[in-house]
Design goal:
This protein has 663 residues and is mainly beta. 3% of the residues lie in helices and 46% in strands. The relative contact order is 0.07. Bound molecules: calcium ion (4 copies). The site of one calcium ion (CA) has 6 residues, from loops.
Length: 663
Amino acid sequence: MTRTLIGSVLALLLALTAWVPTAFANHYQASLDGNGVQPPSIFQIDNDANLVVDPSTAATKDWANVTQTFSVDKPTGQTDNSYKGGVKEDTTCPDETTGSIPNNKSDLLQFGTWTEDGSPGYLHMYWVRVSDPSGTTLMDFEFNQSTATCAIGPNKVRTDGDLLIEYSIVQGGARAVMTLRRWSSANQAWGNPVDITSDAHAAGTINETAIPAGTDQLDLDGNGTLDPMPAMSPRTFGEASVDLNVIFDSTKCQSFGSAMLKSRSSDSFTSQLKDFISPIPLTLTNCGKVQITKQTDPDKATQSFDYTKTFATDPTSANTFSLKDDETKSFDNVLFGSGYTVTENALPTGWSFVNLDCSASTGGVSYTVDQSTRTVTFSIGDANDFLKCTYSNKALAKLTVVKKVNDSPSGQAFAFTSTGGLSPSSFSLTPTGTGTAGADSKVFDNIATGPYSVAETVPAGWNLAGATCSNGNDPSAITLAAGDDVTCTFTNERERGAIEITKTRKHAAATGGQGPQSGVSFTVTGTNLGESKNVTITTDAAGKACVSGLLYGAYTVKESVPAGYVNHNDSKSVTVSAEANCGSAVAAAAPVSFVNTPLTDVTVDVKSQIPGGTASTISCVDGDGTLVKRDLTNAPGDVSLSMKDLEPTAPKTTLVCTIVVDP
Ligand SMILES: [Ca+2]
Ligand SMILES: [Ca+2]
Ligand SMILES: [Ca+2]
Ligand SMILES: [Ca+2]
């Protein structure tokens, strides 16, 4: 009794000594600490291997809370598959047979693996067997790059560099010695073993105590769901971790797609293989994926955008690349690492950056996006890590304001104001001549899309004849879309006036003795009409005639006096200086009046009743005695004196004729 107790205490002390972690902190019991190269593993390799997440350590994993890749052997007994006699580790595509594994010595039940993300992370393995045999525990985990199955036997076709991880624990031992071998295609044999436990790149333990039924979970029946565990007797469950730094060359992409577990009959590497658990697919690689996609607004833009990356690939790839709309750059062989970046270089002229969206990434890839520098910073630490980012860029727009005048600008400047962020927001345009040839313009290039407005402050003496934009917008509400090139044209004309002519005549037969005179033509001339230009208008029934569209300035209105009338003031100067039009707006027209006077003809006849019987003279003078006409010939016979176009204006309204009959 006492001895038993002492023995137990000694065993416990020995065990405690064995459990004491080495110089490393922050890792669990036998778990790997990363050797200062990568963060410690979070996976529990228990000193006394178990499957549960022991509550003492938070944020750790054990087999009960990871989704492991596992394979369950055929049931123990006559249907179990094992290698044929004479098969050794170096045997290529060894054949199999069925039947009981002798003495349950190496009768395997299950194995599994789980890969812990990191830089590069860890590979964790476990095995389960029927019973604890005498002698050394020997488990060989084989990892194959190819998933092609051998023509004969259960194995996968081996490729140069395939892995064999040996786990061995001496009889009664607590910690496994683990070695790593790589397959040599040239030698058709596994290479020399490399001890990976002594330098803390691997660790393996075994359950030294029984694992009670139901306390842990593994998928023992292989149906894909975790099952309550039957009791596991001591030394029938083992677990191990390997630092992926010793599996992978950090400069090469490697990928293992299949794993299997084998038991060996003795310590000797060339001893006969016994039981195996058939290969199971897995993903064990040191490379992830990166995919960068380009989207532009407007769609299908031909602009190319340049990018710079800082991550490494195998084989190596250029650190710069270019993308156009809808194009994708894919890197399927990104070596594990952190602090990787992809940056969109300086924006091409005429383009803006909308955003960088990496939310489509999968596999839990860790990334941060800096929109201001157009950079994604990320880590690739797992085969499933797939960074998928889309850069969206929008074309900038162009707005041109054109100032056009239909009349001579004479140095007139036109002021403009705007909203929406044009710079400068206020500006002035000064056409040099009429029409498009003399137009002035202001170009706002590479401006953001969105709403704008432009307005002209119409100068005195000018009217805005038109304001239109090439995209159909009104200049007060311009909407610029990506890549738009819009021109808004403001057309001005000078203000114009009118001349209204009032034409009257003296007319004895009319009420009041005078009235309007219709049908009288006037010619309007002026320098603003051009030297060779004139306008002829005719009075209407009301004696009115109007001409509009006249630039401000001096004009001459000249009457074409009708026959039978006289007008000594038939040409008048008129100044147009107010905006007016004929018709409804005639009130402001420049007025000018003309009055015509009708003419009178007088004939004085003296008739000799006897031809040649008498001779007479006639002499007529007007009111002030001025001689109008006379015939003093005094020839025998008739005398007739005609006076035409007599004006009824004083003193000419009186005509005195002296007739002398045959003096
Ligand atoms: Ca464990
Ligand atoms: Ca545990
Ligand atoms: Ca088997
Ligand atoms: Ca078995």
